[in-house]
Amino acid sequence: MLNDRKKKILQLIIEDYISTAEPVGSRTIARKYDLGISPATIRNEMSDLELLGYLEQPHTSAGRIPSAQAYRFYVDSLIEPGSLTDNDMALINSWYKERRRSIDDIFQSTAKILSRMTQNVSMVLANKDAGAVFRYIKFLPLDSSHAILCIVTDDGNVDNCVVEIPLGMRPEEMDYLAGRISRVLEGKELSEISDELLSALHMDVAEDKVLFTSFLQAIKRMSRKQNEQRVFLGGTKQLLNQPEFRDVERVKSLLGILEEEKVVRDLLVAGEDSGLKITIGTENKFTGIQDCSMVQATYRLNGKIVGTMAVLGPTRMEYGKVITVMDYLHKYLKTMFEQDKE
Amino acid sequence: MLNDRKKKILQLIIEDYISTAEPVGSRTIARKYDLGISPATIRNEMSDLELLGYLEQPHTSAGRIPSAQAYRFYVDSLIEPGSLTDNDMALINSWYKERRRSIDDIFQSTAKILSRMTQNVSMVLANKDAGAVFRYIKFLPLDSSHAILCIVTDDGNVDNCVVEIPLGMRPEEMDYLAGRISRVLEGKELSEISDELLSALHMDVAEDKVLFTSFLQAIKRMSRKQNEQRVFLGGTKQLLNQPEFRDVERVKSLLGILEEEKVVRDLLVAGEDSGLKITIGTENKFTGIQDCSMVQATYRLNGKIVGTMAVLGPTRMEYGKVITVMDYLHKYLKTMFEQDKE
DNA sequence: TGTTAGCACTCGTTTTGTTAGAGTGCTAAC
DNA sequence: GTTAGCACTCTAACAAAACGAGTGCTAACA
């Protein structure tokens, strides 16, 4: 176990390195922060810390940089919960207001804000509310051979698509049909609308084969769309602000990974269970980001996972700031969604 | 005016430089391309071309690189219309098929394809069809105090949003109201739905003030949304593949510009009139991209501008390939939209 | 026993110097 | 008009030297 002075020194080194990205030497610590001890003493302590695996030296004549183990210790024990400045909060609020038409916009804004505030890449995974309950469908006539099929769910979402109808079908017939289908599906969660249910429906009210097939396909597609998980990325170009990514090759390799939506989704889903998850360096199981750290927060509404947000960046990351921002966004989203539900 | 040999040499230099990004020397030309003349002769010609402003030397002992004037001459007079390989066409088709749910997806795919094929940043500006004609509106009841307002246009698009309704309003009343509003707006182009028209409507059928205001706002918002121009960017990370952008600072400055949607929109709108527009280096009026070239193609349907696509990259750009790809995409889009209209 | 000043040592970075090579321009000959 | 030859220029690449930040160790001190 580290004594208090070692802890303090370690903390200062980590924080100095986080903000400067330069190896930290004993003199720097002595000069910048008044600990009442000389560089030589600090040197001794640093030597110990290196032996214990918390610090490493890029080379003999450089200062020291924190190891992954140090970051781990830092986020577990040293970090102090911070709070956002009023300025930051005002910025966040204004960014959210900038564009807020749909649910998607909110997620997109979240990704953007997260990346801007942390100067790192952000990822937001939105689980569409699979619990949305089917209310009814309705056909809106378009022309003699097409109509618009609207699916209404109880959360106020409407999805629509154009379907082909038998030539000259009358509105009343359509309403009748819609009514029959609606009665079967009403009250079902969209996730429940399975192939079996749909094909049963097909058997049940199969008057016009062609029409029916196109309906069913439309309904299925839409319920699938509702269930979809979507990924929002933010600030991939913030990467360039990090000295770790001064090298174009490294940027390219990371962007290559982020480009694959599937990979990002897997990455996010993997860390979804715990509320706040921080993976540092090689703790990351995904190849290609093992020299990075990731801070991920999963948010729930009534026990269900609504989504998860994450920040990905070099291990030298402002963990404190990231956590603080996420916490704020989390609360913000919560009130926003609750408002929405009313 | 340049004689044929000068033209040929200039063309070879330009094309060699485009593909290698290295200054081209007289020996290179003599060795690579069999012109039947010695390096010394080529040297003389190159010296002339430099004097005429077509070539420049980074320094004495380097080869020469084309000037902006040379590129201009190249695209105006030297370039030969190419055609895509079967392989490329197959790729494009498969990329389009990959994701094709909505109109937006098509534009997004276009941007993606354009950037992938040309290894440069692509921009697509989609003018939503302002000519869509209003058909009718319809209220779908949701709960006792909310309904979903659907706006149906004759191109089969439906927009919807949740509006507040007076507590306990009956479906028949809503239908009646919808009918009245629909009759006034029917047949109008969405772009025609002006504030005056809406407020006239307000005067005309202002039975329930609150309800009405929320309706009108919804309709207005939706017609505005319909009219919106949207910008799609593609392959901002392709930038990193270009040797010109080996330097992170340059990448950052360009990405900064592309980040501002408004700037991109202005940029695209500015070049919208002509069918194919190529701006090279300082011909660009926008600051920040004056060391870049831009190839822009505007596509129309029945005389109306549907959208415009552009490729932005270093002046050393594969102009021929870019034009060929754009031409192909143009045709592809055309058939796609025409199918859609049926 | 913990702390500190002093000093030799290490090693990466910066600076300076040197060389090799690519390319040109000029001249003279064909 | 074309070309071979050659001197000249300039950069990129490499090597050597000077610099400096930082350490580890030792001995002295409280």
Please state the overall shape of chain A, judged from the principal axes of the Cα atoms.
Answer: elongated
- Percent of residues of chain A in helical segments? 40-55%
Sequence of secondary-structure elements of chain A: HHHEEHHHEEEEHHHEHHEEEH
Sequence of strands across the biggest β-sheet of chain A: 7-3-10-9-8
Please report the total strand number of chain A as a whole number. Answer: 10
Give the SSE layout.
The structure is a homodimer of 342-residue chains.
Chain A: H1 4-20, H2 26-32, H3 39-51, E1 55-56, E2 65-66, H4 68-78, H5 86-98, H6 103-118, E3 121-127, E4 134-143, E5 146-153, E6 158-164, H7 171-185, H8 195-204, H9 209-227, E7 229-234, H10 248-259, H11 261-270, E8 276-280, E9 292-301, E10 304-314, H12 319-341
Helix pairs in contact in A: 1-3, 1-4, 2-3, 5-6, 6-12, 8-9
The first copy, chain A, binds a DNA duplex (30 and 30 nucleotides) through α3.
Notes on the structure:
The structure is a homodimer of 342-residue chains. Chain A is an alpha+beta fold and 342 residues long. Chain A is 49% helix and 20% strand. Chain A has helices at residues 4-20, 26-32, 39-51, 68-78, 86-98, 103-118, 171-185, 195-204, 209-227, 248-259, 261-270, 319-341, and strands at residues 55-56, 65-66, 121-127, 134-143, 146-153, 158-164, 229-234, 276-280, 292-301, 304-314. In chain A, helix 2 (26-32) packs across helix 3 and helix 8 packs antiparallel against helix 9. The longest helix of chain A has 23 residues, at 319-341. Chains A and B meet through strand 4, strand 5, strand 6 and helix 10 of A and strand 4, strand 5, strand 6 and helix 10 of B.
